[in-house]
């Protein structure tokens, strides 16, 4: 008696990850636009919109977990895409805001004050640092678990 094992159906990384990335970029552009249109301050609205994006990411991970495990580094790549998209959107917005404060001829230190003593501090430095540390642990686990090998 012979037993034939059927090959596992392959998963195309582009068809799984590209729509995720595009929706995530659009969602974060929407969050940043909402922040800009409401005066440029990090408010409860910004937090709620970011939390909705985070919930969307979590649901997407849950629904696509099996597909992601069939893509080499799939979970790590999806985590990295989320980290880069969310933190870069806030950091880019903060940089533009700081540069515009500096170019308006305002008081010395206005940009530093804006970034260090307002909620922008948490939305940029704290979020990037905390999430970056979590991503580093995830990636270290992937490397230690030899997640790239067949």
Instruction: Give the percentage of residues in beta strands.
Output: under 5%
**Tally of helical segments:** 5
Poorly predicted tracts of residues: none
Helix content class:
over 70%
Order of helices and strands: HHHHH
Overall form: elongated
* Number of DSSP-assigned strands: 0
Provide mean pLDDT, rounded: 84
| Largest sheet composition | none
Calculate Rg over CA atoms: 20 Å
Structural class category: mainly alpha
Characterization of the model:
- With 150 residues, the protein is mainly alpha-helical.
- Helices cover 75% and strands 0% of the residues.
- It has 5 helices and no strands.
- The protein has helices at 13-37, 44-69, 74-103, 110-116, 120-144.
- Helix 1 (13-37) packs antiparallel against helix 2, helix 2 runs antiparallel to helix 3 and helix 3 packs antiparallel against helix 5 (120-144).
- The longest helix is centred in the middle third of the chain and has 30 residues, at 74-103.
- The relative contact order is 0.12.
Q: Key terms for this structure?
A:
150 residues, mainly alpha, 5 helices
Write the layout of secondary structure elements.
Blueprint lengths: L12 H25 L6 H26 L4 H30 L6 H7 L3 H25 L6
Helix pairs in contact: 1-2, 1-3, 2-3, 3-4, 3-5
Question: What is the gist of this entry?
Answer:
By secondary structure, this protein is mainly alpha-helical.
